[in-house]
């Protein structure tokens, strides 16, 4: 696997920036191809995957819980006065749940996850690279790509959908709290409204795209960490560029996947 | 007469872009021998070790380990060769996220997948005894001093009983007393485990303890080769200058 090197330094020219842009795309593509080659090759490091899923879940549990609650509360607080003006506050649970399930839940969870996890993976693998721990693994006849990259990417791909479902649930709790602070609504009415508002066509594309987002977070973090160079400065760079690149790719892929889901499920529009 | 060569390097050339770091290097290392590679910083000493173990591809030439040309091997075949080689990295390269016990267990579990946990426990305990660090078994690498890290790194490299050991600056950054201790530990282990070794260093204390033979890399080539005392007592102005600085430094 020969990955093109990114140019760093204080005196980069415009042509260097253009080179870096294409080198990143090429590098990431090569990394993805290598992942596709390695993912089905034994040994299958199931224990490592479980360990990473545990760690990633615990690492992000607190922050996504708070985020989910705030999404629900803020969305209700913003929408309630507008709906009140039209006497349509009964539609609030349905409106918030559709927004959270289709778009806000998946994208915000993915962005939070990218900030917390992609940077962590970038820093961890980057530090392993510059301190020769990855070389030490290779010397022990272990394929570091399989052991470090494949396991982490599978873990992020599996854990993000679970976290997103959790965030959606928490944000609905937030929504209900915000509603009952201003007016009376029974929990039964709220649950019925939410269930009747969300269709299969809302849920599948919403959660389905988080598999892609989880993959992006894992592969970008690993790519940046695995190719880090230049000592501690390189580790810091791997960490920050992993967040920037994965967040950007999440938003770009979100746009593409929304278009794709509208094509597959025209009733969503 | 039986071929005693464990490593054969023939016309090895390694370049980084336009800069030639190793130029046409030819070198044999015989079974049971302790070879020390000297040279100033940036002369390709560590690169030579990384080429031998297949961590770095080279541009031309051949490296044969136990008569197998490593450039022609598949990764699976290369890994089979690596199972018989230990490598002590300059900074010990201990896995930060693992305890000392897990660091030592890691190569054992990967190289011998069918080994029982009881055998692993015994092996870890015995190897830690060899480096006199039994008490560090449950510590994290961040809790160890520089000298302890080197010892644990050494323990991890020898735990699979390799026949060839590669040392990349085994005593860099250590005080003279710890340097002497680590060097004596290296030579004692080699005698006990009957290993062959190639050590890259510019530390004369370490070299005096472990070297059977020494080579000196200069301008990308092997400039001098011989017994260590031949090199240190040489009338060549460059060698005299290099070793006098080393002696003064220590």
Structural features, described:
The complex is a heterodimer of chains A (269) and B (250). With 269 residues, chain A is mostly helical. Chain A has one domain (14-262). Chain A is built from eight helices and no strands. In chain A, helix 3 runs antiparallel to helix 5 (144-182), helix 3 packs antiparallel against helix 8 (231-264) and helix 5 crosses helix 7. Chain A starts with 13 loop residues before the first helix and ends in a 5-residue tail after the last helix. The mean pLDDT of chain A is 91. Chain B has 250 residues and is an alpha/beta fold. Chain B is 39% helix and 26% strand. Chain B has nine helices and ten strands. In chain B, the strands form two sheets. Chain B has a six-stranded mixed β-sheet. In chain B, helix 3 (100-111) runs parallel beside helix 5, helix 5 (146-158) runs parallel beside helix 6 and helix 6 runs parallel beside helix 7. The A-B interface holds A 43, 124, 127-128, 131-133, 135-143 and B 50, 53, 55, 75, 79-80, 82-83, 85, 87, 89-91, 93-97, 106-107, 110-111, 113, 156.
Write a brief caption for the model.
Chain A is built from eight helices and no strands.
Q: Radius of gyration of chain A, rounded?
A: 21 Å
**Which structural class is indicated by helix and strand composition of chain B?**
alpha/beta
Strand order of the largest sheet of chain B: 6-7-8-3-9-10
Overall number of strands of chain A: 0
Biggest interface between protein chains, with counts per chain? Answer: A-B, 16 and 24 residues
Shape of chain A: elongated
Low-confidence stretches of chain A: none
What is the CA–CA distance across the termini of chain A?
Answer: 43 Å
Helix-strand topology string of chain B: EEEHEEHEHHHEHEHEEHH
Q: Overall mean pLDDT score of chain B?
A: 89
End-to-end CA span of chain B = 43 Å
Protein structure class of chain A: mainly alpha
Question: Total number of helical segments of chain B?
Answer: 9
- Mean pLDDT of chain A, to the nearest integer, reads 91
Secondary-structure element string of chain A: HHHHHHHH
What is the number of helices of chain A? 8
How many distinct beta strands of chain B? 10
